[in-house]
Amino acid sequence: MGANAEIEFPIIEFRSSDLKRGIDGWHRLCKKVREACETFGCFEVVYEKISTEVREEMFGLMKELIEVPVERKQKNASPLPYHGWVGPCNQVSLLYEGFGLGDASNYDSIKSFAQLMWPDGHPRFCNSMHTMATQIEEFNKLIWGKWESVMINYKTLLRFMKYMAPPPGEYERGLFAHTDKPVSTIICDDQVSGLEIEVKDGQWIKLSLSPSSFCFVVGDPLKIKSVNHRVMMSGDNDRYSIAAFAIPIEGTIIKAPKELIDEQHPQLYKDFDFMDFFLFAFSDPAKHIDSGEQLHAFASLSPPISN
Ligand SMILES: O=C(O)CCC(=O)C(=O)O
Ligand SMILES: [Fe+2]
Q: What's this model's pTM, rounded to 2 decimal places?
């Protein structure tokens, strides 16, 4: 079945007046977030504190980044999976190109990235990037800060993506269907749509994000609900997107919330080191496992344990 829009996809507005802990608006917001995460594994976010100007500026700067010679792009490499540059290739897609910037709210890591790409280190890129990464991190704290069991320290991995328009009249894969391996992801685009979400088995909807909205995606590790998504390209325009991934700091152990485990709700997964799972998910053996099944393959307890 192709993409269709019959299902009502949750859109949640984060108004400043609702952000004070304890007030009614805050409780209503928490309930909506929880329901959307549990039902869809994702939702559209409208949040004015992530500046639309900085975001627009970033998309402008990404067009400069794409023009950088390939020898410099290749310097954006990392021992960690998904943290470096990937050019158009058969394994991902001939339409795809993506850069990675780890620890993106840290000015020094932005500077190191920019110095690899531009001889003058592009201070404007660094400043805009720093503002955007910091605002996104604040938003993540807002979301995860209210779930005691996921109060983990994160670093933000930013990925800048370009998807080329497919040949005229074609509907082509820009990024294969997958679930995200980090704890969560925030995605925005330049209003050229392409991101699709599998809302039910085989039923995909295409999101049309506005200049002030984001898509929030829950990743595998929290076992809330991870959602299959992909990028499909059609039309004449290239698409630019920025994804901010919440990556737990080194040594973080993802635990099952013990208070939720009893005879009726046995513990299904062992506690695990996030980075071990992350490395596993990008390893050769995991390539043969469906993306949504990788956590199960890595961490399932059989038989489950009840307290
Ligand atoms: O570019 C997008 O819209 C989605 C990117 C994505 O899902 C990912 O990189 O995990
Ligand atoms: Fe993703």
A: 0.93
